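Note to self: keep these together.
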Amino acid sequence: MAAPKKGRRSPGGQGRPGRVLALILIAMVALTGGMFASGHTTPRLGIDLAGGTSFTLEAKNQPGKPNAINKTNMDTAVGIIERRVNGLGVTEAEVQTQGSKHIIVNIPRGTNAKQARQQVGTTAQLGFRPVLTSAPGIKAAEPTPGASADKGKGDKSGDKSKPSGSPSASASAGTGPQGRPVTDALKADGTPSPKATASVSGDKTDDAKKDDKKAPTPTPTPTPATGDMAALQKQFDALDCSTKESRSKANEAASNAKPTDPIVACRKDGSVKEILGPVAVEGASIKDANAVFDSQGGKGWLVQLKFNSSGAKKFADVTGQLAGKPSPQNQFAIVLDGEVVSDPSVSTSIVGGQAEISGGFTQQSAQDLANVLSYGALPLSFDVVTEQTVTAALGGEQLRAGLIAGAIGLALVVLYLVIYYRGLALVALASLACSAVLTYTIMVLLGPAIGFALNLPAVCGAIVAIGITADSFIVYFERIRDEIREGRTLRPAVERGWPRARRTILVSDFVSFLAAAVLFIVTVGKVQGFAFTLGLTTLLDVVVVFLFTKPLMTILARRKFFASGHPWSGLDPQRLGAKPPLRASRRRPSATVDPKEA
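Structure:
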């Protein structure tokens, strides 16, 4: 008889509920300990709660590419911008398309808005171009022969005293041959390469200078027509790089030029303007870029580049052609979106597929350049059409309103449970507290782990979860009460009601989780926060009901207060409308009748 009783002991229940309760309590302690150990005790907040900056980017049509603005290019741009922003250490940023040609970028507070704006708006079209001629960045005055000669002499004397080995040294690159007309430079220049490390740039040795005189002139590149050269020289003379407006116009014109065309460009600081030859090595050949600090060589912050196989070969070829030429034809310009980032000189061919850009970088500027080079060029050009700052005060007010709404909803749920379920309300409140601890600690830990940020829709999802969790308790309590109404005592009612309640709870939670998953997949941005929180709390509802509510109810069913059907237990048979006698008392009369009949 012992075996059958053991078999009927708990249809769907736990034989050792204490162990199950201990398991979930250990999990709660472990999660709480992990939260404090990680150094994060509050969830990360999204832009609507913490404040931040929102940018709207508008794609521009590119010359010669009328159909460039399409879904594929927009999606590619979103991915690149997101990686760039994340490269700044911003894991809560939101990047999404809006319409057919707009991208919305939301960056939370704590990020340098100016730096982020440069990152998201920079196309990162990189090219290495040979320097054909250069001059100070101001607009050229009407030249006279005497003035030109004096300028040339002054430049030469300045060249002797200028330091070498960094792009900044080319700021005085107006030395010697650079003052000649652009037509002569175009005819004399070969196919150069734009990139050299500061470690290979510098003053030449006497032997190297002698070799320069004997070196044969490389095969010249195709030159523009005479009219084009004259127009280029005129544009160069009229360019004034000292003003931001003129630099912007020059950068835009240079960035829209074809790679095979020579261009006129300004150095980033506006101190020098240059005429540059066709692109010798494209930025797409860069495999990786990193910002490092050179403490031994004294170069300070620099950007180390690594080329792919084809880029390494091109780079070695063009640096070999540039080496040995007079200044500035021994320089190449690293041009990013039409702007000269640096223009180092080359003293020897650079092989091995690695190079570095140095000269005047700060830590921030070096990291910014390495960031845009590492993640590639955007397939489209963008303008920042709107920039909006979201204050934390507005998000705080909305958060307070949401929390007040949640508190009111929770109070109403508790009031209902106490009035209707009385003692069972303690089980429901303990289960809600367990669910709250699990939800909070997991949200905090997911912040540094996967970049989860709590926004207003996510708060709404957590508030909705209160009702979902309470609904599971109510389903189970009603199943127990149904069993008591049928005449069973509490302990069998708890175990017999569980399988029926379990099926209902699983079906209900599955539907909620499915809705949350679909919503998360088909939506973007903040709505995903709502879907994620709803899905997370739905899964936790299953965990809490199975591992906390059910075992706790099994233990309480053994206590006299609940087992005896105390009026305040919420399980009083008379209040529930059970028809006496209960099944347990029906057996006793039948047992006494049989002996009399016998």
